[in-house]
DNA sequence: GGCAAAAATGCATCTCAGGCATTTTTGCAC
DNA sequence: GTGCAAAAATGCCTGAGATGCATTTTTGCC
């Protein structure tokens, strides 16, 4: 991330990263399939955290409620805002198509995991869980982007909650 | 696409594609940045068609209605179902992470275009258009996947309309 | 037929992913 | 602490990909 800031993402070679991390080029490849994966690793951790929170929600909660509650619980458990790194990563992904592509693929994988995790929960409108999860992730993504566009002036959770409220208003008409 | 079916996506080199198309390797790169782009080109055409349809919708229609109507209009204007190629491409993208990543990046770009195209339209619940477009695309994607999972036995439009109806039921609770 | 623009090509270079064998480090029983 | 097996890290190598640049070929039009 530091090298990326200093020289730009596509001007940083894997060799340079390996060197800066005091590991061999080959070892880098043992841990990450590509540069993109390395940059987006923090996001993967976020996904894992959210999944863990979701699994701990009481079974009685509906799918949508459990998802919302997981976000609320996780984000408010942080002692500091996920400021610099998140903003940096998100901005980077906006500018670099390859990063964007990888990020979206990660999101799709995350969606599959979430879908499995909410399977079996009550689901008010009979909406299939794939759709529900997709919409949830859209809201999360739009929330993050809004937060970034506002230059991280508000609380991330606050922005996300706002978007989630919007999602709960009907789309039709 | 033919070579991919015969030998598998990742065993087809750009050289092979170029040779089969009677063009030089270099010319391939003049048209497509990578193999993935070539395979997904049909989808790009679909996006363009949908955008064109959207721009021709009457201004009085709300954003959501205009989006739904565009799909309805475009899909029912086809004389044949987009059967083989679509199913093939979608299944391929499911199996190959790099293809999936590229596809999702294309969807994101498409989302930006759609967002611009519906900007200014009436929007019932005051939902921001980014969110609206995202949800619309989720519905389209889920519809396509459902259609595939049902082995293309029904009409694609029918499946998509069904999902769109689901989206119009509230998510909250 | 001639000419300019656009398309296609060839070439060269830098980078990457990943298989395989080898070396180094780590964790643990003794 | 010593020895040993598993895990991690490394080095080397190959096939493939992206892309800049100069050159050749094709196309469209007067």
Task: Give a verbal description of the structure.
The structure is a homodimer of 173-residue chains. Chain A is globular, with a radius of gyration of 18 Å. The mean pLDDT of chain A is 92. Chain A has helices at residues 2-7, 14-20, 25-31, 35-39, 41-55, 63-77, 83-95, 97-118, 129-149, 156-167. By secondary structure, chain A is mostly helical. Helix content of chain A is 71%, strand content 0%. Chain A contains ten helices and no strands. The longest helix of chain A is centred in the middle third of the chain and has 22 residues, at 97-118. Chain A folds into two domains: 1-35, Arc Repressor Mutant, subunit A; 40-168, Tetracycline Repressor, domain 2 (Orthogonal Bundle). In chain A, helix 2 (14-20) packs across helix 3 and helix 5 (41-55) packs across helix 6. Chain A binds chain B through residues 62, 64-65, 97, 100-102, 104-105, 107-108, 124-128, 130-132, 134-135, 138-139, 141-142, 145, 163, 166-173, and chain B through 62, 64-65, 97, 100-102, 104-105, 107-108, 124-128, 130-132, 134-135, 138-139, 141-142, 145, 163, 166-173. The first copy, chain A, binds a DNA duplex (30 and 30 nucleotides) through residues 13-15, 23-27, 29-30, 33-35.
